[in-house]
Design the sequence.
């Protein structure tokens, strides 16, 4: 059997950890919006994103949407979260992982036409790691139904 | 304690006694080092030579063989430290206190390595060294928690009092551990989601996964070795006036 003094200490420690967890839980819940690193394209189309200030927009680059309209450094592409799309314009050097079908996060603001003018573009890596041959063989298979 | 076999209970009781711990870990050390060297050699060879390049990142992805095990260790060691601290608080076992403080610098180092390697990888891949997303920020807080534990321990002269103080700090900081782990699922982050610890099958090819797991084991071994060595020194310092220390070292001199 546990001695009463030890039992009491164990209870105190349990209560302390529980209290800290509950307090942190409430704090995180109330700051939930601020802890989001970026807004989704649906947020932007629904008008939830801030107007006239910088914010970050995340989404997947739509295949075939990347274009360089003036043959210059300016790139235009469309981002999607598989429900709504936002057009993004960016002038500058894109990161290594930027490509069509890739998730990215852009920092910038909306112009009056609803086009997102990015000042910075970051590539978001996905969690998949595989050798090139496996990727090729996946590509050659008949398209799997999209599960998302 | 009726569920645990008597032999196991006796083993732990003996290990909690400083002279036994000191002698036993001395005998254990060559074995631990051998296993560590074998695991590290196998993991590094598998990760840097045998594993194929990634379809998107080429060879740059190989930093996961350091980054991911370090990040796992940063969480694992924190849990060990907090648990040992808690055991020290409740049962007043000296050895648990020693294990708790001996873990802190190693955990801090792994956290630092995870942050630095992530940053080095982030620049070419993401396009930035650092972002304040939930994963990166919570991991940085973990580093500060470790540094807080080390600093607090150093600031209090009575080491038994110091051990109680750091145990409380470490236990309160445990809240951060699930936050780090789930940060990539609870919030939008730039950091990617989990690869290996997903509920369905890991999204990493098996030729890349095996060296990663070997490296994770190797890092665990390294932690055990480094922690035990630190614990032995810490024990000697605390017990410097005890008879067993005198016996042991006078014996060796003569």
Sequence:
């Amino acid at each position: 059997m546990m001695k009463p003094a030890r039992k009491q200490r164990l209870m105190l420690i349990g209560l302390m950890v529980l209290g800290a967890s509950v307090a942190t839980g409430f704090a995180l819940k109330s700051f939930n919006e601020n802890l989001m690193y970026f807004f989704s394209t649906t947020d932007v189309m629904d008008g939830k994103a801030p107007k006239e200030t910088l914010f970050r927009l995340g989404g997947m680059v739509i295949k075939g949407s990347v274009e360089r309209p003036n043959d210059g450094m300016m790139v235009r592409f469309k981002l999607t979260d598989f429900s709504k799309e936002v057009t993004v314009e960016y002038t500058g050097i894109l990161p290594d992982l930027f490509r069509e079908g890739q998730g990215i996060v852009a920092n910038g603001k909306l112009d009056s036409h609803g086009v997102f003018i990015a000042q910075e573009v970051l590539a978001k890596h996905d969690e998949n790691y595989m050798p090139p041959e496996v990727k090729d063989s996946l590509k050659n298979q008949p398209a799997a139904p999209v599960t998302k | 304690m009726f569920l645990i076999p008597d032999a196991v209970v006796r083993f732990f009781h003996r290990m909690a006694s400083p002279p036994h711990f000191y002698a036993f870990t001395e005998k254990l050390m060559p074995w631990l080092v051998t296993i560590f060297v074998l695991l590290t050699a196998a993991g590094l060879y598998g990760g840097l030579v045998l594993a194929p390049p990634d379809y998107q990142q080429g060879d740059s992805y190989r930093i996961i063989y350091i980054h991911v095990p370090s990040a796992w260790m940063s969480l694992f060691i924190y849990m060990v430290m907090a648990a040992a601290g808690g055991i020290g608080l409740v049962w007043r076992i000296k050895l648990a206190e020693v294990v708790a403080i001996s873990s802190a610098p190693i955990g801090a180092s792994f956290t630092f390595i995870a942050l630095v390697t992530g940053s080095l990888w982030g620049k070419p891949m993401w396009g930035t060294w650092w972002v304040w997303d939930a994963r990166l920020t919570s991991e940085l807080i973990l580093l500060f928690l470790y540094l807080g534990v080390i600093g607090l321990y150093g600031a209090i002269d009575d080491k038994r009092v110091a051990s109680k103080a750091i145990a409380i700090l470490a236990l309160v900081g445990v809240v951060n551990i699930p936050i780090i782990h789930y940060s990539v699922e609870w919030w939008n982050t730039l950091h990617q989601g989990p690869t290996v610890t997903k509920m369905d099958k890991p999204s990493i090819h098996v030729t890349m996964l095996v060296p990663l797991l070997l490296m994770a084991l190797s890092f665990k071994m390294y932690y055990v070795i480094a922690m035990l060595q630190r614990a032995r020194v810490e024990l000697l310092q605390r017990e410097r006036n005890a008879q067993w220390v005198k016996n042991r070292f006078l014996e060796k001199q003569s």
